Amino acid sequence: MTTPTAAQLAPTETVAKPPRRVTAVATLVALVIVVVMALGLAAWFRGEANQLTGSAAASNDALVDADANAQVSAQVREAVQRIYSYDYARLDDNERAASAVITGPYVQSFHQDFARVRDLAPAQQAVVVATVPALAVKALDGDRAIVLVFLDQQAHQGDQAKPLVASGRLSVTAQLVDGRWKIADAEPF
Questions:
Q1: What confidence tier does 10 reach under pLDDT thresholds 50, 70, 90?
Q2: Mean pLDDT of 101-130
Q3: Is residue 4's pLDDT more than 60?
Q4: pLDDT, tens digit, for every residue of 146-167?
Q5: pLDDT over 80 (residue 13)
Q6: How large is the greatest C-alpha to C-alpha distance in the chain, in angstroms?
Q7: pLDDT at 18 (0 to 100)
Q8: At what angle do helices 106-124 and 91-99 cross, to 10 degrees?
Q9: 3-state helix, strand, coil in the chain (%, to 5)
Q10: Of residues 122 and 61, more confidently modeled
Q11: What are the DSSP calls for 83-101, one per residue?
């Protein structure tokens, strides 16, 4: 075994330190990159936030105001049941009760439809009872609401023991008038 001699050992090299200027430039470049990335992320997050706050869901009170939603639901349910129920022996009362819960252009449409009921119901001795088993407030914006309504009707005619049963779906536009939600339009869907 041989041991190296002093001539065989490599001289130790000194590691050169980079000049301060290079370190300062590298630090500055890194800081600029971090700032640009932070600004880019801030802009992206702001765009995402604007997209959420500007969406239809964010402006739909039906999704965020439980009290208003409950009020619309209860009043529209009661109004729809009034409008679509009648008794041949009390048609004047039925029309008056329905007229109290309708508004706008639907008033004329309702009275045209009810004129047909006046023609047919007495001869058939028809009694129709409407119920709303389910409804959902689709949109609520200030004094206007769109409500999807499931409607069941049972029609009793004269001396028939078994009632006729019908079901339907309505898209109801409700309007807040003097503190009450009234039906401004109703369309089957």
A1: low
A2: 96
A3: no
A4: 999 999 999 999 888 899 999 9
A5: no
A6: 130
A7: 61
A8: 160
A9: 50, 30, 20
A10: 122
A11: HT-EEGGGHHHHHHHHHTT
Sheet bearing 180-188, strands edge to edge: 86-87, 126-141, 144-157, 164-177, 180-188
What is the C-alpha separation between 159 and 156, in angstroms, rounded? 8
Q: Tokens for 108, please give them.
A: 């004329």
The CA distance from 116 to 109, in Å, is 11
Q: What is the pLDDT of residue 20?
A: 73
In angstroms, the CA 85 to CA 166 distance is 12
Which residue carries 């939600």 as its tokens? 181
> Average pLDDT of 54-75?
81
Residue 131 three-state SS: strand
C-alpha angle 117-122-127 in degrees, rounded to nearest 5 = 75
Q: Is the pTM of this model over 0.90?
A: no
How crowded is the C-beta side of 154, counted as CA atoms within 13 Å? 9
Neighbours of 150 (CB within 10 A): 15
Q: Quote the tokens at residue 98.
A: 């329905």
Helix H or strand E segment including 21? helix 20-53
**134-to-16, 34, 73, 104, 149 alpha-carbon distances in Å:** 81, 55, 10, 25, 6
